[in-house]
Specification:
- By secondary structure, this protein is of the alpha/beta class.
- About 30% of the residues lie in helices and about 20% in strands.
- It is built from 15 helices and 20 strands.
- Strands 1, 2, 3, 4, 5, 6, 17 and 18 form an 8-stranded mixed β-sheet that branches. A 5-stranded parallel β-sheet has the order 7-16-8-9-12, covered by helices on one side. Strands 13-14-15 form a 3-stranded antiparallel β-sheet, with no helix packed on it.
- Strand 14 and strand 15 form a beta hairpin.
């Protein structure tokens, strides 16, 4: 298969030696939605010496990694797309994994980004050089790369979490994000550990092909019915009208901000949404015992809401069993739960999520005067609007701490961050400075607001989830609307929140404007 990466080999000696001789202007780490969006914005702004480093041989982030049966986006694609390439298909509302990955490939071709991509290169450390104001990156092969600015776009859901269980299993195991397509599940007894979004999407397929499926649940999730993946004939016809896609997109944004976001704060839509979830459960699960096991004892929105219409019907099938007793140990031919019951299985599928709260865990990041980012984040990661950290000049994050919106468009959140990062780089360029860094006082004011806002949500008193750090701190979700995020960034521009140091002649050169 030919991919955009094939157009630029990471081993071209002239290319690498040039990067070693002259520092990059910007190094982007990660080639998912955030990294590709950042690269497109840099190219449009006239920056020429930038590179996108990707650990894998393929682009796509979570849409590259998750190839399990039934993998699809649970956000309408009109929301789940970047402003530089707005979604305009009037047939499909929820594209599957392959279509979403192809969407990112089209952006690379559309924006001419292939020459800037560096596949198969893992950045293992990033060190700020105080004397020059640059960053030195080190790859997994020992190559050293200098860059004026580093932008981490590694995302939050890319490091699979597999629970540590005593014992040894004799069959086949794999995580949903590392699906084993060579292992047929036809006629097998499959144990699925976890009942989040990935489990909900794979269960209908497993229930069809496997002889028996045992689903192990730690915490029940709130489940809301998901609209049909394809638009109906009337909607498709309406979307053919000029301007209709933009109107539909604005309606979705407005609905997300005013209908979904209040749920996280027990606002006016929380009770009707919870009533809908309970009705959905009663309609598909007539057995009161099973229904009780699937009913959460915490408010709707306390963990990520599962949007799926096939999960409950699949659980009600005669060859599917829900087990809520905690797993005690693995055995050669299955699992044993805390009550001593042995549950036979020849395949275990871990639908157990990701190490989402451990930001930049695969990179050793050293900032100004030798400070270590992982030490600074030992009790929980935090960053100015998820993008910048005091003590780490010329370093930015996309999809950093507390920037995941559970009730809106995450590509839109990323685009707001991209535009803000470009504004920071322009500020540094215009002042002729070496480094730009978020002001500690601005960070403190933001953190105080963030703590108050999180305290008003349902998350602090809800079960442990990927929203939370091991310390209990809420590190991942944004506690307001996407519109509020946009407004707060406008009210706190780089000129008011960042400082610059060590003036010099900058090599940055911006020719365009941020994408809107």
């Amino acid at each position: 298969m030919t991919t955009p990466f094939d157009q630029t080999s990471p081993t071209m000696p002239g290319q690498r030696s040039a990067e070693n001789r002259m520092p990059l202007q910007v190094a982007v780490i990660g080639a998912g939605f955030g990294g590709i969006g950042m690269a497109a914005a840099l190219a449009r702004a006239g920056v020429t010496r930038f590179a996108v480093f990707e650990r894998s041989d393929e682009i796509g982030g979570v849409w590259r990694d998750n190839t399990y049966p039934g993998c699809t986006c649970d956000v309408p694609a009109h929301l789940y797309s970047l402003p530089i390439a707005p979604y305009r298909d009037r047939r499909i509302r929820y594209p599957d994994q392959r279509a979403t990955l192809n969407y990112l490939r089209r952006i690379i071709a559309q924006e001419g980004l292939a020459p800037h991509l560096r596949p198969g290169i893992a950045i293992t450390s990033a060190t700020y050089l105080d004397h020059s104001g640059c960053w030195e990156l080190v790859t997994d092969t020992g190559q050293r790369i200098r860059t004026e600015t580093v932008v981490f776009a590694l995302g939050q859901l890319h490091r699979p979490h597999i629970p540590t269980l005593p014992g040894e299993f004799g069959g086949t195991t794999f995580h949903t994000a590392r699906w084993n397509h060579d292992h047929s599940l036809a006629g097998r007894t499959v144990a699925v550990i976890g009942t989040g979004s990935s489990a909900a999407q794979i269960l209908p397929h497993l229930a069809e092909v496997a002889a028996r499926v045992r689903v192990f649940q730690r915490t029940p999730h709130w489940v809301l019915p998901k609209p049909a993946p394809a638009f109906g004939p009337l909607t498709g016809a309406l979307l053919a009208i000029p301007g209709a896609h933009d109107i539909y997109r604005r309606l979705l944004y407005t609905g997300a901000d005013h209908l979904l976001a209040p749920i996280m704060r027990r606002g006016w839509t929380a009770r009707p949404a919870e009533a809908l979830a309970r009705h959905h459960l009663r309609h598909h699960i007539p057995d009161p015992t099973l229904r009780a096991k699937l009913t959460p004892d915490y408010p709707l929105g306390g963990t990520r809401i599962v949007l799926d219409s096939a999960f409950y019907p699949s659980l009600a099938r005669p060859n599917v069993e829900l087990i809520t007793t905690p797993i005690r140990e693995l055995e050669t031919h299955g699992l044993t739960t805390g009550d001593g019951t042995h549950h036979r299985a020849d395949t275990i599928v871990y639908a157990t999520g990701f190490h989402a709260s451990q930001f930049l865990a695969e990179v050793t990041v050293t900032g100004r005067e030798g400070r270590m980012l992982h030490e600074q984040w030992a009790d929980a990661a935090s960053a100015f609007y998820g993008m910048a950290v005091p003590g780490f000049p010329n370093m930015f994050l996309i999809a950093g701490p507390n920037t995941f919106t559970p009730a809106g468009s995450n590509p839109a959140m990323k685009q707001l961050q991209i535009d803000y990062i470009l504004a920071c780089l322009r500020m540094r360029d215009e002042t002729g400075a070496t480094a730009i860094e978020v002001d500690p006082d601005a960070m403190a004011v933001y953190q105080e607001w963030l703590d108050r806002a999180i305290g008003k949500t349902v998350w602090p008193h809800s079960p442990h989830s990927w929203y939370k750090h091991a310390t209990g701190a809420i590190t991942n979700p944004w506690p307001a609307t996407v519109g509020r995020y946009r407004t707060m960034l406008r009210r706190n521009p780089p000129t008011d929140s960042f400082t610059t140091t060590t003036c010099r002649s900058s090599t940055m050169a911006f020719a365009g404007e941020p994408a809107r």
